[in-house]
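Q: Hi! First time doing this. I have a protein sequence and I read that you can turn it into a structure. Is that right? Here it is:
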Amino acid sequence: MEILGVDDLPNHFRLYRSKVGPDENRLGTHFIPSWEDYEEGRIHQTELAKRVTEKLSSDRAALVRGIGASGKTVLAWQIAQEVLNLGFPAFFFDFAADRNSTRHLVNALISDIKRFGHPKVLFVLDNIHVEETSAKEVFLAWHEIPSLQQPQILLVGRETRTAKGSSIEGLKFEALSLRARQAELRGVFRRLALRSYTGGQLPEPPEAVLTNWLRTFGGKPENPKTTADLIVFSAAVFRRMRDLLHGRWRLTEADAVEQVRDVYLGALSPPETANLARLCVAERLEIAIEPEVLAFQMAALTMCNTKLGIVFRDETGGRRHSIRYRLAHPALGELLMAGMENVIDRMSVILEMASVSARFGGDAASRLMSAGQLEDAQAVMLTTIDKSEKFLGLYSFFEVESILRLAKRLKIELPESFDHRLAAKGRNSGKFEEIAFQTQFDHLVSFLRYAEESLPAVFNALSSALADAKNHPQLAGVALDTQLDHLVSFLRYAKESLPEVFTALSSALANVENQQQLAEVALETQLDHLVSFLRYAKESLPEVFTALSSALANVENQQQLAEVALETPLEHLVTFLRYAEKPLPTVFDTMSSALQDAKNQQQLAEVALDTPLDHLVSFLRYAKESLPEVFTALSSALANVENQQQLAEVALDTPLENLVSFLRYAEKPLPTVFDTMSSALQDAKNQQQLAEVALETPLEHLVTFLRYAEKPLPTVFDTMSSALEDAKNQQQLAEVALETPLQHLVSFLRYAEKPLPTIFGTISSALEDAKNQAQLAETALNLPLHFLVGFLRFLEEKLPEPFKALRTELEKTENLTHLVEKARNSPSIYVLGLQRYAETSMPMLSSVLSTELQLPGQPGLTSIARKPTAALE
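A: Yes, that's right. Below is the predicted 3D structure, encoded as structure tokens:
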């Protein structure tokens, strides 16, 4: 790998290794399971582990939630060990260890998953609650990977909203809740005791003792949601191990406090204890701290890190060299603070740290706001912005903007002096340049736009620094290392607002000395993004376009271009080929030759079989017209009997709306492929999967598929119809109907009335059910007026009882007021349509509209009746 210059490991995910536990720097921390515990089978496996494994096997993904110190990371590590035992790798990433998630990090994690993913490989994202938005983006990117290539992905994090277990925000992704109860307490006791016990059979705590332990370290045992704090429990077990091994089972929280006081706190100097107190307070907010916020920087946390193992020291190199401290386990914080002699005033400590670090202040305010502690969050933010010079210690303007936008969300106005202090010359000289060159160009554009509006002095200082000729070489260097799609956004902005910068960058990019580097960046750019840059360059940077075109057409780059073409998702490849035909004929010829080369047909076929079917249709349409040899080769490959099983699996995993599109296309030019897919869809062994797909498909897409399937796929139509009409699925179908946009629901019901009368009746009953009326009315009130009229007409005609119930809801005073306000902001043609309908079917609404808006037929016609509409204009 080293000789070929190819990475053999991900850049950010850590490879799981049997002889390294979840925290390989654990040192002397007795509470955390050691690799020996894993290897010798001393780790208790929870009942949830089997469910997680089954979920990963069936869905390729699982989400585990639990409170702190409930065993989440240990569970993930056990599942990774199972993967390793099968001979496949598992990779970990811990958001708690890298708590400064940025767009760059998210992209890097996605890249790792795509490059090293395989159906037998496991990726674990631990502590996702620390950066849930980033975790969601990574998960969504994983979800887009073709199903046959998807690795397994396990997400682990604390419960963020309810004890039931929360999904990832905005996603219908079931969370499996981990509870540490009697069995887990027994497991922890056995693990710790077996490390040194040599006295024969280990004493077993009776069930009544385990229940009492759960009450002491968790809460009411009779409550199924009660879960124990395993860190506190472990400390207490250590303290009383001698008694426990002799059957004296009494344990208290005080035992845990005495253990940490004697073993850990007693070994620390007062300055290091003060530093540890700050870290414990920060851990309550799940923030890693930097040396600058320690009470005594000289003392640091050396003993805690090197001797006691309760603190980890994370150090990153490069131009963003930094050191951060974090506890070996967040749950240790409360326990350590309970053992300290002095009572810690948490808010005072947080404010002290915020006064010396803008990064900490921003993180703390964000965490407090998320926890609903708005007053505390505002106090922290006020302290943070009071020290404007500390903002110049941040890594990038992305961080600066994020903190200041957070202040706005907290309703804190920046003092006028903030802008001038931050932009002050002399003291801050050179800082703007340094931070600017560390900021990704897309983030820099965002900050410049923000500063132009909100921080004029900072904007002037920054724009002057960027326009300074002495900084142009460094700025050009950054440009040549920037993704081309980000570079376009910066150039567009600079041309308008920073003309000197634009001129300097244009010259640098067009410089013959930089052409090779620019070509290398282009060859590493996703092809659809490359098209965007080339379009822009042709219009605004003709010399750059000419230079880049020549570089791409250079014979030395043709082999790499061919490889890029063969590795590019087909939807992006089509975009590039359509563009390249005229302005880049040599590049087009190189790529098309590579695609048509017989020795590459197998690779192209593999790419095609991994391509979503709607994108594959687009490529085939293009290839048939512009690359006939490629079309012929792909058609043969797709029709090959060896690929039929994979095609069938792709069809069964494709959203129905995309499947219809492909089947309509395939009927004529790809009859063998069509026959393969239709046979798979109609195969009895796939009927259950098809039924599940039907019940999970939005009704507007389902009706499209059903209309199509009636004739060419009668067995599929019958299967889906039976599944939809099955009594056990009626509740789910009703829920789907109530969540469907009403204009689409009308379309589905009109279709279902004759071929699917049972389904029509089920949805009609759901619409009529009194308990659903409020939800139905709310959905109706959010419709554009012309869709609302269409829905009401349909109900009145086909479902008179649901219509009467909905009319009653809509004629409530608060809903009539809402409709009037909606009408005021709607095109007049839609308002008049509603009024004409309401005159005969909803007289109360008609009267209110006429009175409030003075519609035609009423005295004093207002402009609402003459208001132009988008359609008329």
